[in-house]
Amino acid sequence: MAKLGKNAQNELEGKETVEFFKDLDREALNTERFLEKYSKPLGIAFGVVVLGVLGFFGYQQFVVAPKNEEAVKTYLAAQKNLTEGKEKEALGGTSAANPGYLGTFKEYSSTKVGKLSAYNAGILKFKEGKFQEALDLLDQFSSDNKTLVAMKFGAMADANSGLNKNDEALALLDKAATASDDPYTSYYFTRKAGILALGMKKEVEAKKYFATIDEKYQDYDNGMSDSYIEMTKYY
Questions:
Q1: What is the pLDDT along the chain (235 residues), one digit of tens a residue?
Q2: Angle at CA 63, nearest 5°, toward 58 and 69?
Q3: Are 172 and 143 in contact (CB under 8 A)?
Q4: What DSSP character marks residue 62?
Q5: Whole-model pTM?
Q6: Which residues have CB under 8 Å from 194's CB, separation 6+?
């Protein structure tokens, strides 16, 4: 292909530039027409967005904040009863005068304190031997704290064991062992899962858990995992 002369090349580039700016003009015109045509619905949409943002902050300030404050008050009252050994009063839920953990959860379940109350109420229900009620309450707890989530799964595992649902309990202990970044928490629930698997005569699963301890958590185990691995040979 023959090369264009310098003048011809400049002329071609000039034409391309003109066309480019013409395209820009057409695009700008189209945009203006679009805005002109849809100015009203766009204004409405923008207004909806602004109202949504204002509504969110209003909700946070006038609904969520007061609820959090009230939830903290009732939660701390329940905590006080618990530290004094008054577990029934701490559990509460029997009167408006003493909401306790149960009342705090039911009234403020959308708050973080309300969810934490569900966890504490679940633990107390477990101590009463009411395992299904404990499970239902623990299941309502959620948190950004990974260690607390691990503790939740561990407590749910204990409740399932109380209901003789050991397969479910083992699955929850497995979750508990992997939920947290804290090495001791992971070790604790891995060991607990291994012991449960051993008691269920699931030697393959048990050996897996104890081998994990031997590999990752020797600092916490004092060599006990070796003894458990040896025990799996006799099942």
A1: 444 454 444 444 444 544 544 554 454 445 455 445 545 554 444 444 444 333 333 334 434 455 667 888 888 888 888 889 998 998 987 777 888 889 999 988 888 888 888 998 999 999 999 999 999 999 998 888 899 999 999 999 999 999 999 999 999 999 999 999 899 999 999 999 998 998 899 989 988 998 898 888 888 877 777 676 666 665 5
A2: 125
A3: no
A4: I
A5: 0.69
A6: 205, 206, 208, 209, 210, 213, 225, 228
